[in-house]
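A.,

Following up on our hallway conversation. Structure tokens first:
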């Protein structure tokens, strides 16, 4: 099980990392070819997809489907799985029809709300109509994808994701050289998403057929159990979404498409980095569900402890380096057009930095509804802080006020969120504070030194940028390995090597 987890994590890292790089490459192509306003219009239409703002209202269909299938791989009751997936599928179809009809009918009003100028209105409405049609496939695809995740077939998911992204980027580059209208980019994006969803549907049907699982009428206990899980996930996504994918929508309401384009460009790198980490741990949900079904409490606790200490060890240095080097990154990536806003791009990295401590705990405790409910309450507090600060500063900083509000709210609520996870995992307070404090000290001192170094050395090429960032990360990792990790944590590395066949095999325990 752990070996499969490691393999799926590597697959997710490589595949999505490549897809993310392609996505970052195409962003400046769109801005330079069609302009910031047109880019903003494209971003607004994508907010109305399951990968955008609609993710807030998807009832956690993908996550619940993953848990259902992962648990079934332990209890082997595939008839029950068929009934559970029938319920989730019906919910997804109802949600798809409701959202599609709403978007289609409200398209003219959305155009007015988003302050779309007359020259772009008709084309913007056409894009919304096609977006509504695409959702009829993309929302049910959440259940298909969650099911495939439950079977831990991440190779299929990541291959389809990379292929669709590659097709989108290639066709967008072609569109930029062919001087076509900007809406063609939106249609290309929708087409590649639908094709990917249909490929996942094939994998979904194949996986269930092999297990002889068939759709059937669900029972009242199944309906109650899944409804409870879906509503808890909806609650968390509603709260988290308001400080996430809904923000570009609010920016559009207040300032129009151009500001949406600026906002998206400023947060794109930090958002991609957050998604990369979420994909790194997405392979963990089926494993956590199976461990919980088995009652393997020791291994479950160990996973959570590694998430609070070891995941930040690896992910925080690259994020800190990107934050400090934001002026250089902005200049090399997009150019002088948005260079004056580089500080705000750096500030946006505070959000994924805080998320690193919650990433693994937030996933494994999807199996424990009481812990999930507590984390939702803290997210509600975070929402209140974000709303108050953003509202107080929006007249001064415009679209950047939302970045400020979210960064400050994330920092202020983080200690309570970490404490909730620590208590749930029954970790000793003293040893945890020592490890977390040492880790924070190393990163703060290293970041200050990097900032001083960057102010004296001109980083004007991608090679120089990579060398400086890599040196910072390597130094931070070495310092944390010796100063933060204890013998139990360091033992993980040779154990992983033995699991993957990189060192001589020894008898391994589950933990």
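Then the amino acids I'd put at each of the 511 positions:
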């Amino acid at each position: 099980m752990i070996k499969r987890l490691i393999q799926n994590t590597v697959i997710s890292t490589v595949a999505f990392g490549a897809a993310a790089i392609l996505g970052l490459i195409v962003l400046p192509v769109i801005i330079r070819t069609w302009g910031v306003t047109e880019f903003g219009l494209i971003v607004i239409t994508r907010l109305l997809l399951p990968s955008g703002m609609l993710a807030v209202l998807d009832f956690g269909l993908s996550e619940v489907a993953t848990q259902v299938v992962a648990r079934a791989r332990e209890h082997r009751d595939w008839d029950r799985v068929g009934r559970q997936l029938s319920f989730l599928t019906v919910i997804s179809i109802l949600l798809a029809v409701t959202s599609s009809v709403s978007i289609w009918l409200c398209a003219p009003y959305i155009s007015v709300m988003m302050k779309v100028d007359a020259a772009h209105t008709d084309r913007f409405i056409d894009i919304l109509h096609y977006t509504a049609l695409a959702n009829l496939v993309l929302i049910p695809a959440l259940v298909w994808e969650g099911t495939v995740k439950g079977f831990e077939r991440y190779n299929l998911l990541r291959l389809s994701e990379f292929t669709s992204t590659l097709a989108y980027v290639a066709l967008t580059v072609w569109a930029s050289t062919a001087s076509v209208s900007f809406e063609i980019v939106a249609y290309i994006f929708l087409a590649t998403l639908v094709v990917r969803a249909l490929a996942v549907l094939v994998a979904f049907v194949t996986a269930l057929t092999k297990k002889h699982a068939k759709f059937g009428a669900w029972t009242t206990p199944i309906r109650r159990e899944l409804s409870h899980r879906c509503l808890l996930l909806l609650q968390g996504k509603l709260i988290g979404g308001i400080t996430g994918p809904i923000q570009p929508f609010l920016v559009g309401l207040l300032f129009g498409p151009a500001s949406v384009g600026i906002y998206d460009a400023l947060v794109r790198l930090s958002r991609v980095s957050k998604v990369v980490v979420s994909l790194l741990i997405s392979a963990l949900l089926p494993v956590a569900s199976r461990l919980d079904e088995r009652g393997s409490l020791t291994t479950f606790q160990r996973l959570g402890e590694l998430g609070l200490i070891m995941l930040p060890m690896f992910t925080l240095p690259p994020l800190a380096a990107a934050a400090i080097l934001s002026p250089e990154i902005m200049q090399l990536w997009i150019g002088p057009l948005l260079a004056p806003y580089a500080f705000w791009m750096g500030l946006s990295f505070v959000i994924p930095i805080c998320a690193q401590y919650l990433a693994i705990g937030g996933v494994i405790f999807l199996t424990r509804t009481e812990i999930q409910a507590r984390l939702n309450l803290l997210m509600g507090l975070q929402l209140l802080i974000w709303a108050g600060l953003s509202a107080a500063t929006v007249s001064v900083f415009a679209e950047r006020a939302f970045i400020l509000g979210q960064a400050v709210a994330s920092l202020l609520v983080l200690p309570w969120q970490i404490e909730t996870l620590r208590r749930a995992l029954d970790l000793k307070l003293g040893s945890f504070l020592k490890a977390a404090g040492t880790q924070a000290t190393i990163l703060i001192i290293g970041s200050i030194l990097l900032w001083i170094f960057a102010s004296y050395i001109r980083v004007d090429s991608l090679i120089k940028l990579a060398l400086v960032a890599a040196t910072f990360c390597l130094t931070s990792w070495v310092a944390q390995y010796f100063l933060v990790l204890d013998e139990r944590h360091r033992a993980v590395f040779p154990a992983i090597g033995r699991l993957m066949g990189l060192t001589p095999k020894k008898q391994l325990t589950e933990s």
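The chain has 23 helices and no strands. Curious whether your intuition agrees with the design.

B.
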